[in-house]
Amino acid sequence: MKNKRSLFSSFQTKVTLFFVLSLLFLAALSNFFLYEYSLSLQFKETRDKLMAIARTAALSVNTDLLLRIPLNRSGINSADFKVIARQLESVKQANPLLKYIYTMAKTFQPGILQFIVDPSATEKNINPKSPTAFPGDTYDAQRFPEMLKAFESPSADKKMSVDAWGVTLSGYAPIYNNAGEPVAILGVDVDASNIYAMQKTVATRAVFILLIGVILSLALGVLVSKRVTGPVGQLLEGTRKIAAGDLEYKVQVKGKDEISELALSFNNMASRLAEARKDLEDYFYRVVQSMVRSLEAKDPYTRGHSDRVSEYTEKIALEMGVPYAKTQLLKKVAQLHDIGKLGIRENILNKEDTLSSAEWDAMHMHPIIGEEILRPVFSDEEMLSVVRCHHERYDGKGYPYALKGEEISILSQIVSVADTYDAMTSSRAYRPALSKEEAVETIKKNSGAQFNPRVVEAFFRLKTKDAF
Q: In what helix (H) or strand (E) does residue 100 lie, and over which residues does it extend?
């Protein structure tokens, strides 16, 4: 009986594969030629358009002005540069498809060109992430033969190019002097993402037709193999969930055959992995907690700081309606918020005088160091951000990344208030403790600046209840 079932299952698989592969092959073959033809046609139309734009724009360039531009960085300040730049910018505005427009001339080195006018060069200091070229900047065009051919006649890239300006498709045209001699070229670039979008449209149509064939073949295959593929699919989904870290996921397969037994074993394995991970996280947490307390024990001024911050955090989070389970995890993470100070020298941590600029820079690294310490075990990105961002300010003047407003997770902002309140009401080497009233008033004054107003409101509600 077992052999019959095994052969029958094997036959179902073969029938399914036969329908899928045969129809898939025929559909793929026909759609491949359709796709290639459409893609080639669209690509040619784009190249022709780029050459037409480049040729028209090149005719509008005043050669005398172009050749008078100094070929150095100060050239962008010349009146001639500004005139040509305005002309090129107007061409760009008239053709929204364009991403860049520029002029280039030959150098004494074969294959090496130099920029004359790039309108975006004037924006160099405003947007340093936007690549620009100044007059005289050289460019190795040996990889782009169509660019070099443009000194003879209009041309366009036959394939997309990749350089500092991104992934682009470019068109070129010669710029002639009064004697009819080519003295420079004008180039126009389009963002290759536009080309990809056109390709995707054609590809989608081809895939749509292909999917129809696949669906038909799958429908036939499902009729004879659903009982097998269904449970296997559930096991596959379970494997993906486990790989993604969801160890609580359970595979639901009913029956008494080998697949149901496999599903039961799978669920048992996932349960044991979940228990092992919890044990590991608890162990790691206790070790790190011990390290934090050891760190605080070296400084009588901060002893118990993390425990108090953890308690304040829990109260504020619950007052703000954070779910209990998440609040308990946040409470644990809050207790470890300063773990990164293990990576800071003690002479900086315990310094009574004002820290130097270099020492402040070192101190500002402790949130990042803390995140690196916890990341190997803590997989929850939201909780890791609590350690990373507990010194960020609502107004964007905090550290280490100067985040502001809603860029900072609300959990981080809760810990920030709790941390600041305890720091102000604790004695430090460089100042005595503030009274609770003074600390509360300071937090109130900094609502909307250092602190999230919603967190401050919850803090005050608790203070009214004498929770602190």
A: strand 98-106
Return the bridge partners of 105, or none.
Answer: 114
The whole-angstrom separation of Cα 170 and Cα 98 is: 9
46-52 average pLDDT score: 90
Residue 71 burial (C-beta neighbours within 10 Å; 0-12, 13-18, 19+)? middle
- pTM comes to 0.45
Range with the largest mean pLDDT of 40-49, 310-319, 422-431 = 310-319
Supply the mean pLDDT for the chain: 80
Given a cut of 90, is residue 258 above it in pLDDT? Answer: no
- The token duo for 332 is 């644990």
Domain edges within the chain: 35-197, 288-464
What gap in Å lies between CA 342 and CA 311, rounded to an integer? 22
343 and 369 in contact (C-beta within 8 Å)?
yes
Phi, psi dihedral angles at 220 (to 5 degrees)? -65, -40
* pLDDT score recorded for residue 304: 79
Give every CB contact of residue 455 below 8 A, 6+ residues apart in sequence.
316, 320, 410, 413, 414, 416, 417
Compute CA 373 distance to the chain's CA centroid, rounded to the nearest angstrom: 22
Beta bridge partners of 114: 105, 138
Q: Which CATH number fits domain 288-464: 3.90.76.10, 1.10.3210.10, 3.30.750.24, 1.10.287.3510?
A: 1.10.3210.10
Checking if the pLDDT of 59 tops 70, the result is: yes
CA 361/CA 3 separation, integer angstroms: 72
* pLDDT at site 337: 87
Q: Which pLDDT band, with edges at 50, 70 and 90, does 20 fall under?
A: low
Instruction: Choose between 261 and 322: higher pLDDT.
Output: 322
Instruction: Please name which of 85, 157, 149, 158 lies closest in space to residue 115, comparing C-alpha atoms.
Output: 85
Spatial separation of the C-alpha atoms in residues 272 and 278, rounded to whole Å: 10
Domain 35-197: give its CATH architecture.
Answer: 2-Layer Sandwich (3.30)
SS3 state of residue 96: coil
402-419: average pLDDT: 94
C-alpha triplet 330, 335, 336: angle, nearest 5°: 100
Domains 35-197 and 288-464 share a fold: no
**Alpha-carbon span 112 to 406, nearest angstrom:** 48
CA distance 12 to 18: 10
Q: Considering just the CA atoms, what is the radius of gyration of the chain in Å?
A: 33
Q: If pLDDT is split at 50, 70 and 90, which confidence band does 459 have?
A: very high
* Strand 138-140 to 98-106 pairing: unpaired
Rounded CA-CA distance 194/459 in Å is 51
* pLDDT at site 271: 76
